[in-house]
Amino acid sequence: MTAESLAAVASAMADTTRARMLIALMDGRAWTAKELATHAGVAASTATEHINRLVTVGLVGERRQGRHRYVELVDADVAEVLESLAVLGEQPSTPPRGMREAVINSALARGRTCYDHFAGRLGVTITEALLRRGVLDESLALTSDGRRWLTDALGAPFEPGRRATTRSCLDWTERRRHLAGAAGAHIATAMFTRGWVRRIGSSRAVVVTPAGGEGLERLLGIEGAAHFSAAG
After folding, report:
1. What sign results for the dihedral spanned by CA atoms 40, 101, 10, 55?
2. pTM for the full model?
């Protein structure tokens, strides 16, 4: 790392439009340039300039499919850095600007995706339940039985590949740690596949379904799924 490279990345983030784009991409999906332009409230040509800047510093990657240009975060490491930076910049005493923002903030705090794993109260609650079950130790590393649990309990082989098996990610809203890394992604993928969670519209906010509530209670002893429902 050099001072110049750090300054380049920081400068690329230090723009409200580009920050809105990065936050949108935190849902782990690829967005079209047009979708990002609409989300950020700028013209398509302006969005292209901002996207190019983010690509240049290595924060996002792009691919083309037909006429569309798809943009996504480079990897989970970028998402975790963004989540941590959000903790530093958050002003808890600042009231929401209107009912819509209050509803959005409440949904994101309740449960959301942080790139490819769960964050918010849902992510923290799952992490704490994994600790109680002995799947993780206090450093959030897998225990000797943890890897087997990830495969047997979730019904899908756990294959971390080259990425870190587990990582501790400081939660932006809860100010506590939640599970990231390959294990966190494995749990999120399994829960989406089983229909235990669903997204709220096009946002990265998620809610637990009735089936998910039963599954979380059975596997992890998490009760009161209503806390993570749309009305919770």
Report:
1. negative
2. 0.78
